Amino acid sequence: MHKANGEHPYGDIGQIIALFIFLIVWITDSFILHLSTFLLNEAPLIVRLSIMTVILIPVYYLIQSGHRVVPRQKKTDDLVTTGAFRYVRHPLYLASLLTYLALSIITASLISMAIFIGIFIFHDYIAAYEEKLLEMKYGKIYSQYRDKTGKWIPRILNG
Question: Where are the alpha helices (DSSP H) in the chain?
């Protein structure tokens, strides 16, 4: 059984649970117990901030573009392939993943990075599920879009 809007039935709750688990682990490891943050001394704060900034810049675009591609009053049943969807098939999931990655890097929390990997696997699973639904709904149109658009890594020169 799937939701009427084509999302995985446990996608929303799974993302909320993942967020809470990540935040609890990240805060606990990064600011309280410091179990896996021993690499903090190896990478200066300015380096970690620079990496985090480079990661978070596309997050802003992905969120803004992913939400604004189809205005609410003009909802369409057409396949959306513009804005951030032109480059990646799951811009909002990618924005979420990049945020987790940036937080893990800024505090050098290896435990948080391990949680991030688990969250990535979950997102990849729900994205694959949703892509099957899109393939059933749009057929060849979706297949062509999928073939020229990156799932997680943008294909900038996709014509």
Answer: 11-27, 45-68, 91-107, 110-138, 140-148
Question: Side chain identity at 129, as an amino acid letter?
Answer: Y
* Residue 43 burial (CB count, 10 A): 13
3 located within any domain: no
Q: What is the pLDDT of residues 11-70, one digit of tens each?
A: 999 999 999 999 999 999 999 999 999 999 899 999 999 999 999 999 999 999 887 765
Q: Is residue 41 part of a domain?
A: yes
Residue 156 falls within a domain, yes or no?
A: no
Q: How many domains does the chain have?
A: 1
Kindly state the tokens that stand for 136.
């059933």
Backbone phi and psi for residue 20, each to the nearest 5 degrees, phi listed first = -65, -45
In a domain, 99, yes or no: yes
